[in-house]
Design goal:
Blueprint: E1 2-6, E2 30-31, H1 33-37, H2 46-59, E3 64-67, H3 77-94, E4 97-100, E5 116-120, E6 128-131, E7 141-142, H4 151-157, E8 171-173, H5 182-185, E9 199-204, E10 207-211, E11 217-220, E12 223-226, H6 231-238, H7 241-255, E13 259-263, E14 273-274, E15 281-282, H8 286-291, H9 295-304, E16 308-311, E17 318-322, E18 325-329, E19 339-345, E20 350-356, H10 367-376, H11 381-387, H12 392-412, H13 415-419, H14 425-429, H15 433-436, H16 450-470, H17 473-489, H18 495-504
Parallel strand pairs: 1-3, 3-4, 6-7, 10-13, 13-16, 16-18
Antiparallel strand pairs: 1-19, 2-5, 5-6, 8-9, 9-10, 11-12, 14-15, 17-18, 19-20
The structure holds fe (ii) ion (FE2).
Fe (ii) ion (FE2) binds near residues 8 and 313.
């Protein structure tokens, strides 16, 4: 039995422009290159990347697909309509079946949310702010198709993708019963914690997909906000019935010989950890750390009987285990390394393959527009490298390199480390003799600059094992030994020690 898991498609409405251009007019609506390079995901390539993912899944003969949330750019009806047109076409032509959960970009709780994006037409020139807020002063363009959906809107729009009993399934239920009626199937009321659209479905004989809606909302600064940081901590606190339902499902699955796989938009475990046994703890940069759940949440989910959980949200590929729970981080098609996951279930076994996108027909649809924008403004080397990419895989690699410099290095590290970027590792380690001695085994690494080590950290963090395999063995081996030496000494005062600890947590 095989299924595909696709996370964070973030479909941008390329051909409809959220109502700004007419679908089928021959023109396209593009996000600007500047916004693309300032974001952790690419926008204009999402359509081509999603089609390439779906075609690859069809080619493999897989017909069941889970969309792990953030399927839309930002919950706009224009983007959701574009997504549904694609899903319908694959249902009709290939008999595919889609089961969906929401991410933090798909719906905004009890209320809608205004969205505004700078868009150009295919020539890439004269960007205009297209907004759902009709109070935005001209020359902004008002389009209601840009308005981010409330959760009630989203569940209505996507009802046929798992939120009501789908055709041709062997079993379907929600934490609240078996009613096919959306209004009665879920306790939709003004309590934001009540907006829980979780369900269990059996699309293939013996395979139970537990699709958990982990969006919990709260009121902040006069608006509803989703608790996307450490989401599972909030879900378990605000939905006391959740663990009981999961435990009940797991017990029934085990009794009736069903393979149980769980899915939600958010990680159920911290995606990088260090230490062993009782000393196990999350180890990541501050920005990542605040987004990760506590180990206690993972322990409770494991205790309830979840063995396999698939998460999106972080746009990375990875696998982490704790207390009999495996969390598989499913990468996004629109951020490095770019791909999705194929799950093969056998007699009690689960095998996960990361399917990486390389050749994506039409990924360069926006290249002419990017070139036009680069010609008009003085843009840095990362822009030029990204435009020059020869295939989609290179494009995402170059984009990620730009993101490391323009976002991660600025946000994640103290000025001390940023100022040391060009200093060779040998020089940085000379202040710590117990670490400097490691260099004798890897003489070439000494001349390596700190910037390269930082870059390796982010690429490994995003690409997981496959990225590691592509790096020289010598470097990975050095990072491991550095981590072990640090672990033995317990010292983590210098920036390079801190970096080595984080690297070791990924290896
Ligand atoms: Fe996302």
């Amino acid at each position: 039995m095989q299924i595909a898991v696709v996370a964070d498609v973030h479909l941008h409405d390329l051909y409809g422009g959220y109502g700004w251009i007419e679908e089928g007019s021959g023109d396209i609506a593009l996000r600007t290159f500047e916004e693309t390079m300032a974001s952790t995901r690419v926008f204009n390539e999402s359509h081509a990347a999603f089609m390439a993912v779906l075609d690859d899944i069809v080619r493999r003969g897989i017909r069941v697909l889970v969309l792990l949330g953030d399927y839309s750019d930002d919950g706009q009806p224009g983007a959701v309509a574009a997504l549904k047109r694609i899903l319908s076409s694959y249902e009709e032509r290939h008999g595919m079946r889609f089961f969906v959960t929401f991410g933090n970009h798909d719906c905004f709780g009890p209320a809608t949310r205004h969205q505004a994006k700078w868009l150009t037409k295919g020539d890439g020139l004269d960007p205009l702010l297209v907004t759902s807020n009709d109070e935005t002063p001209a020359p902004a363009v008002f389009q209601i198709g840009m308005l981010g959906m409330s959760t009630a809107d989203a569940v209505e729009a996507m009802a046929n993708y798992g939120f009501i009993r789908p055709d041709k399934v062997l079993h379907w239920e929600t934490p609240f019963g078996h009613s096919d009626d959306l209004a009665r199937g879920y306790p939709v009321d003004s309590n934001p914690a009540g907006l829980d659209f979780s369900y269990l479905v059996e699309p293939l004989e013996g395979l139970w997909l537990l699709i958990l809606d982990a969006n919990v909302f709260h009121r902040e600064n006069g608006a509803w906000q989703v608790r996307s940081n450490a989401a599972w901590d909030h879900v378990l606190k605000q939905r006391p019935y959740m663990l009981n339902w999961i435990a009940n499902v797991a017990e029934r699955a085990s009794r009736s010989g069903k393979m149980l796989l769980a899915f939600s938009h958010y990680p159920a475990l911290p995606l990088a950890m260090t230490g062993k046994g009782n000393m196990r703890r999350a180890a990541s940069t501050p920005d990542w750390s605040k987004r990760m759940p506590s180990l206690e949440s993972g322990r409770l989910l494991a205790q309830a009987g979840i063995r396999w959980h698939f998460s999106g949200h972080m746009h990375v590929a990875g696998r982490i285990e704790y207390d009999s729970l495996v969390n598989l981080a499913v990468p996004s098609p629109v951020a490095y390394p770019g791909g999705y996951v194929v799950v093969t279930c056998g007699e009690g076994s689960v095998d996960c393959e990361f399917a990486r996108l390389k050749d994506v027909p039409g990924f360069d649809t926006a290249t002419a527009a990017y070139n036009a924008q680069v010609r008009r403004a003085d843009m840095g080397p990362a822009f030029h490298e990204t435009i020059a990419a020869k295939d989609y895989s290179d494009f995402l690699h170059a984009h990620q390199k730009g993101v490391i410099t323009s976002i991660h290095l600025q946000k994640d590290w103290p000025p001390g480390i940023v100022e040391s970027l060009n200093i060779p590792v040998r020089q940085l380690l000379s202040a710590a003799p117990y670490l400097a001695s490691q260099l004798k085994h890897w003489p070439d690494i000494g001349e390596f600059q700190l910037a390269h080590m930082l870059e390796d950290y982010y690429f490994i963090r995003s690409g997981g094992e496959e990225t590691m395999r592509a790096l020289p063995d010598e470097r990975i081996s050095f990072y491991r030994h550095l981590g072990n030496a640090l672990h033995a000494s317990g010292t983590t005062g210098m920036p390079i020690e801190y970096l080595a600890t984080l690297l070791a947590a990924l290896l």
